[in-house]
Model the fold of this input.
Amino acid sequence: MGQTVAPPSATPWLHSRRGRVELAAFALFCLANLLIPLVITDLYPFSRAPMFADAPQRYCEYTATGSDGETLELAALGLDRNYWGNPLGVGVGYHPSPSADVFGDVPSQERIAAWVRERLRAFPTLSWVEVKQTVIGPIDSQRIGEMESNIWRVENPHFQGPRAP
Amino acid sequence: MSAACLERWGERSRLHYGLLVLLTLLVCGGVLCAYFVFYRPEPGAAAERAAGPATWLSWLPETALHWRPLSWLCGGLFMAGAVLWAAQRALPWSGWLTALSYNAAVALFLENARQATHVGHITGMMLLLYALWYQLYSADIRAALAAGRFWIAPLYPRWVAGAGVFYLGLFYGLSGVMKWLTSGPGWANGVSLQLWAQLFGDPHSWFTQAILGDRRVAVLLQWAALIGETSGLLAVISRRARPWVGLLLLSFHLGQIAVFGWGFHANMILIVLLFFPFDEWIPRWVARLEKAGIAQHETATVGAPLHS
Done:
């Protein structure tokens, strides 16, 4: 620090009451910022700064269409993406609803079909839904793009007949 | 750590550098506080409530956490506290009012959010550190103000500057260490950055297109980010390395802003003020200005006509 001036007192800072209080404040500030993040990832204003610590190598994009030809809300089928680079539900008050779209994972047809079938209870007028899964990842040594695309039809076990006109 | 080394933390300098950091914190804090107050998300459903505390306000009842006027109140208190603190009034309470209301505004934002953000953490913690400084020095500062010695009294302790550097270095260092621990060196293989750029990046940005077009660019940028962040720990202990780490972190943030537009501008300003030797430069500039002022005054006095 430039042009520093020694404390005016003849007593060394460290041996003065004031010096000890300041040193304790300094130590407490540093220790709290060092130790609390070791115990809990994010407890604002303390943080382990976990953003983008994951290294996803691919992700999926979904679309869903009902047997009536309408595009369905992905959240209603639990296929919405909840990814912002931070661990979910950490350092925030809310954990998003569960989704089969876990960023970085490529779930199988069986998993998606079982997941969606469970949620089709809310759509008794649809006899089936068609789910399109597009996998985005490395397509060569330089670029990323569409690696594969799958379309799966999931029959609705809760179908109660078409919507009345 | 030897007693002589510890004794150095008690050294003090004049207030210019400390006040520059403080005013920067107040301005950056004002902008960030406005964001956290006005862009606070709506709370989710009760079933979505995250397990475990998220902020220092998690102990408050749900109704208080969800009550939007509480955020407005925090914003208003921050503004009042910041004006008083900048004017060196109501010390040390104006400092605590500012620091606590800012941190409450950020905490209320996070308590209602699903998506975490870390743009306000450094400003929040630095405001708390500076409030702590004013707590311990308010009597001296008030006395210096009363005696007209505010600008010449040595009232900025070295430990405040040191704690600021420690916290800033630790924040970035931990972020780097988390990447090593979670993903290992494979974190920087370029693919993940390309995916993030594809998903969150500004498609019109030249940087986004460069990252998406050539994995080598992505690898280079990711390694620079990983080394820069992890080097935050080096910056804590090495004064010589600090500006270089600062340069790496500034480049990292500039890249982030160019590609993703994330609001880490306040962090960048604090990196400049804390990792570059402004604590040495500013007293030198002030001394030079004072010397020039005295010389000018003397010239004017000598050159003035004598009145009999």
Notes: Residues 292 and 307 of chain B are 26 Å apart (CA to CA). Chain B has a mean pLDDT of 93. The longest helix of chain B spans residues 121-146.
